[in-house]
UniProtKB/TrEMBL annotation:
<keyword id="KW-0464">Manganese</keyword>
<dbReference type="GO" id="GO:0019323">
    <property type="term" value="P:pentose catabolic process"/>
</dbReference>
<keyword id="KW-0170">Cobalt</keyword>
<dbReference type="Pfam" id="PF00834">
    <property type="entry name" value="Ribul_P_3_epim"/>
</dbReference>
<feature type="binding site">
    <location>
        <position position="38"/>
    </location>
    <ligand>
        <name>a divalent metal cation</name>
    </ligand>
</feature>
<dbReference type="InterPro" id="IPR013785">
    <property type="entry name" value="Aldolase_TIM"/>
</dbReference>
<feature type="active site" description="Proton donor">
    <location>
        <position position="178"/>
    </location>
</feature>
<feature type="binding site">
    <location>
        <position position="69"/>
    </location>
    <ligand>
        <name>substrate</name>
    </ligand>
</feature>
<dbReference type="GO" id="GO:0004750">
    <property type="term" value="F:D-ribulose-phosphate 3-epimerase activity"/>
</dbReference>
<feature type="binding site">
    <location>
        <begin position="178"/>
        <end position="180"/>
    </location>
    <ligand>
        <name>substrate</name>
    </ligand>
</feature>
<feature type="active site" description="Proton acceptor">
    <location>
        <position position="38"/>
    </location>
</feature>
<dbReference type="InterPro" id="IPR000056">
    <property type="entry name" value="Ribul_P_3_epim-like"/>
</dbReference>
<keyword id="KW-0862">Zinc</keyword>
<comment type="similarity">
    <text>Belongs to the ribulose-phosphate 3-epimerase family.</text>
</comment>
<feature type="binding site">
    <location>
        <begin position="200"/>
        <end position="201"/>
    </location>
    <ligand>
        <name>substrate</name>
    </ligand>
</feature>
<protein>
    <recommendedName>
        <fullName>Ribulose-phosphate 3-epimerase</fullName>
        <ecNumber>5.1.3.1</ecNumber>
    </recommendedName>
</protein>
<dbReference type="InterPro" id="IPR026019">
    <property type="entry name" value="Ribul_P_3_epim"/>
</dbReference>
Length: 233
């Protein structure tokens, strides 16, 4: 994986909501590539976060693409609201969706990008028949619902397997990791094949500020090249 091509997607779940605009602007100026917005309904996951009204507010203060991670039941019912609010892509879960192909087609009809998210206990093999139709796979490296959790190291094998499937079936498809990404886990995930990293607490919780958090992660990712490069090259 070319470490310089890895994209960073700050998750606003860990932002200071009293200073949300300021912090998103700081992330954008520091070189973040897109903004990740975690929508939770208290049913699909045991937590409630925010809905389209916050997406609309973020849309007004940044030109970065907005990706909406939908941790809600019946995600299809809400696509129109999020599109009206300014969403650029939808990340929908494999879990609990018996009609995932239809969901993907609905997003396509709206001319938005679509990614499939798989939880830690879900095997890579469920992607086999849908991979050709999507723009992104998101491997959850924590159980969904909360920020500030630890990266589940046993996901590394699954990340490599998804990378192999993507290279074989749909090389344009992005491989994103979500949860517990920090300066320690980022190079591990990138070495395994990820090319987009979501980070909430590592960026918005950085004691030196949001820009320092983005820089720290960028420097950690750059180390991946050294780790994976054959000796003497
Ligand atoms: O979707 C989720 C959690 O369900 C994530 O996007 C988290 O918001 C990432 O936060 P950190 O683990 O980086 O603090
Ligand atoms: Co997320």
């Amino acid at each position: 994986m070319n470490a310089s091509a890895v994209k960073i997607a700050p998750s606003i779940l860990s932002a200071d909501f009293a200073r949300l605009g300021e912090q998103v602007t700081e992330a954008e100026r520091a070189g973040a590539d897109r903004i990740h917005l975690d929508v939770m309904d208290g049913h699909f996951v045991p937590n409630i976060s925010f809905g389209a009204i916050v997406v609309e507010a973020v849309r007004r203060i940044t030109k970065l693409p907005l990706e909406i991670h939908l941790m809600i039941t019946d995600p299809d019912d809400y696509f129109d609201d999020f599109v009206a609010a300014g969403a650029d892509s939808f990340l929908v879960h494999w879990e609990g969706n018996d009609n995932l192909h239809r969901t993907v087609q609905r997003v396509r009809q709206l001319n938005k990008r679509v990614g499939i998210v798989i939880n830690p206990a879900t095997p890579a093999s469920v992607l086999e028949e849908i991979l050709i139709d999507i723009d992104q796979v998101v491997v959850m490296t924590v159980n969904p619902g909360f920020g500030h959790q630890h990266f589940i190291e046993t996901m590394v094998g699954k990340i490599s397997r998804v990378r192999e499937m993507i290279n074989r079936c749909n090389p344009q498809c992005e491989l994103e990791l979500d949860g517990g990404v920090d300066e320690k886990s980022a190079p591990i995930g990138v070495a395994a094949g990820a090319n987009v990293l979501v980070a909430g607490s590592a960026i918005f919780g950085d004691p030196q500020g949001v820009a320092a958090g983005v820089d720290r992660l960028r420097r950690a990712i750059a180390q991946t090249a050294d780790v994976t490069k054959p000796k003497g090259k």
